[in-house]
Design brief:
- By secondary structure, this protein is of the alpha+beta class.
- It folds into three domains: 25-63, no CATH class; 80-218, Helix Hairpins (Orthogonal Bundle); 232-349, no CATH class.
- 52% of the residues lie in helices and 7% in strands.
- It is built from seven helices and six strands, in the order αααααββααββββ.
- The longest helix is centred in the middle third of the chain and has 60 residues, at 159-218.
- Residues 229-342 form the ARB-07466-like C-terminal domain.
- Keywords: Coiled coil.
- Residues 90-127, 174-215 form a coiled coil.
Length: 350
Amino acid sequence: MQSDDQSRVDEFADFWAPDRSTATWGGTLSEIASALPRRRAGGAVSKGRVIAVAVALGAALVAVPQTPVLALPMEPESMDSLRQRSTELSEEYNGELRDMEGVIQEAERAAERAESTADEVDASKEQVRALAYASYTNSGIDPSMSLFVEASPDEIIDRAVVIDYLATSNQDKIDQLAQALERDQKAQKAAEESLEEAEADLNVLEERRSEVQELIAAHPSQPMEGPLNITPRTAQMRQLVIDEFGEGKEQGGVGCYRAVGGWVRGEHPLGRACDFMLSKNGQMPPQDQIDRGWAIAEWSRENADRLGIMYVIYRQQIWDVRRGDTDWRAMGDRGNITENHFDHVHISMW
């Protein structure tokens, strides 16, 4: 499938169910009025009588005690403003994320340095202990100790001089390593503290991003727009999935708007659905792409309320918020891998 190719008609299957009811009291009363029996001459129910009944019913409904009328809500923030905020927050978030990655790397390097220095300190201490033991027992110098003598062993005749020389040299080394170890440990601690601060900043940014994402998803104006010809709510979901799981261009990429929806009209022609491909040319995807599909599908379920996701289809199964689903439901066989959604994840929006 060519990603977001508006000229191509694919036979991707959609699940369809009516959207939420938007009936008003006025519309309901009109339906009631039109549904009343109308008899002809000789006891006919007049049009005025029908209207009177409807008005009386409306009056009765209005007469029911109501909660106090609250002040009208403020006009929602414009979509352009929300998009700008979302872009700025994403850039800030990504910048903080890069900074945190640098802090993590520095913390790891500091920990590695501290561990290496500690090993050297332990080795030097062991050498000093061996020297002290040799001096105490008067058993002479271990031949391996000559490795630590910078001068030629022939130039150092007295055993005690050798021991003193080696002990002093190694003690200096221990002191230097101890200082390095202290420095590395301080660097590690500072890096860990910076990491905690970076994580806290990221959490705050993530909350702010999430709030803006919810405002975009809940915004009353959702026209089909832009080069992809999809709604802002759909565009946001599409980008978030790509950010989280990749676009998968080698597998066919992402396709949203199509003039024809498939078996039924569905949401593709309304700019309210996207297909995230896992393989090309109607082939069964490999296991790593099957797993990627499940990750996309489960992420969509977890974020459905926040982003305005209506239903998800994957591998001949559907999860639909309108039916109160808590788990996947099996779907009928539609004949091939693509129409049964084995090679892509379908996500439809409100």
